[in-house]
């Protein structure tokens, strides 16, 4: 305790020791685990000032699906059970307070919405401030609610997720920060598509009106589930010129990945997609076959729209690089660290 007090009160210009809590990442969906892995990899290469300790199940980063080497970080492998998520969470909660004290962590960044201290209410003397991450829509269970209420800061991967957290869990707006995420590098293609192909992929469920619209214009198409492995999605998109997105995760990943590959995106106006794509897509504002037909005809016939949209997609891809995104995350760590210092010494 005394050691932590001494470090905090004199730490304004020293590196922060940040514990990256990845023990529950295995509970996330496969696309989100890919996102977490890309975040860790980019952060590892960008920030050599702060000190990072990654807490992962036995097997290190590969055990959480990150599949990236982090030689500049200290990897702390645990013996948590791999089966039964409830048992893994229970063991996680009971052990982490002692771990944080042992390793003298200044900040804990939980890479899921579940804080390692969600079942406890430790003081700042006993535990460091916790940042919890909302990569996808959080479950409405008591543990998640306790975690979000208790966290020092909630980092939401999109404005849509931030609003969801505030409304569903009654979290104060000032506690939630919208943090940028990068596009999956697997999907970044250069150059963009140069022609409007007539083969389509429908990413998500295929409503009858979408199916009917595609049949009327005689477009060859295939369906792609909302949650699919990265390579399978890329393989399907590579064969198409047009991607119709009918479902999306909370980050708008489906639309971003399609746009990054230079595919013409037609989408149902879901909030996460509208937030990230804006003018880089055509929107199906009516659930009718005619709206699909009109969108496809505009892609084929409107050369000015294609050129304008190609520039939008290129700009979007450049702005959504992971290297740029992690700069904001490092800034968040510093702000939380300085806020913790100020509260600890009573400034």
Automatic annotation (TrEMBL):
Residues of the Glycosyltransferase subfamily 4-like N-terminal domain: 74-185
Superkingdom, taxonomy of origin: Bacteria
Gene3D superfamilies assigned: Glycogen Phosphorylase B (3.40.50.2000)
Keywords: Transferase
GO BP terms in the entry: lipopolysaccharide biosynthetic process
Listed GO MF terms: glycosyltransferase activity
Coiled-coil stretches noted in the UniProt entry, renumbered to this chain: none
One Pfam family of this chain: Glyco_transf_4
Designated name of the protein: Glycosyltransferase subfamily 4-like N-terminal domain-containing protein
């Amino acid at each position: 305790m005394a050691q932590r007090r001494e470090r905090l009160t004199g730490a304004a210009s020293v590196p922060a020791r940040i514990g990256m809590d990845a023990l529950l990442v295995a509970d996330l969906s496969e696309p989100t685990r890919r996102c977490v892995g890309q975040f860790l990899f980019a952060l590892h290469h960008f920030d050599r000032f702060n000190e990072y300790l990654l807490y992962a199940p036995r097997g290190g980063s590969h055990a959480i699906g990150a599949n990236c080497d982090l030689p500049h970080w200290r990897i702390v492998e645990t013996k948590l059970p791999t089966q039964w998520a409830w048992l893994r969470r229970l063991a996680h909660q009971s052990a982490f307070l002692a771990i944080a004290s042992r390793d003298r962590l200044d900040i804990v960044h939980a890479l899921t919405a579940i804080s390692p201290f969600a079942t406890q209410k430790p003081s700042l003397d006993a535990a460091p401030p916790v940042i919890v991450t909302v990569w996808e829509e959080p479950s409405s269970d008591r543990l998640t609610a306790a975690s979000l209420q208790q966290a020092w800061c909630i980092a939401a991967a999109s404005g849509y997720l931030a609003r969801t957290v505030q409304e569903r869990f009654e979290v104060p707006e000032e506690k939630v920060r919208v943090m940028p995420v990068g596009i999956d590098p697997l999907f970044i293609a250069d150059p963009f598509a140069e022609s409007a192909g007539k083969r389509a992929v429908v990413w998500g469920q295929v409503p009858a009106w979408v199916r009917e619209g595609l049949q009327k214009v005689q477009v060859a198409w295939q369906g792609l589930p909302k949650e699919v492995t990265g390579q399978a999605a890329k393989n399907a998109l590579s064969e198409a010129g047009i991607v119709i997105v009918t479902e999306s995760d909370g980050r708008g990943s489906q639309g971003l990945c399609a746009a990054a590959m230079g595919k013409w995106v037609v989408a149902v106006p879901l909030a996460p997609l509208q937030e990230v794509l804006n003018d880089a897509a055509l929107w199906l504002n009516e659930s009718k076959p005619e709206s699909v037909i009109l969108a496809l005809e505009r892609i084929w016939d409107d050369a000015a729209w294609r050129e304008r949209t190609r520039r939008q997609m290129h700009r979007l891809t450049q702005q959504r690089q992971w290297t740029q995104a992690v700069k904001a995350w490092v800034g968040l760590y510093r702000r939380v660290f300085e806020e913790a210092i100020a509260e600890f010494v009573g400034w």
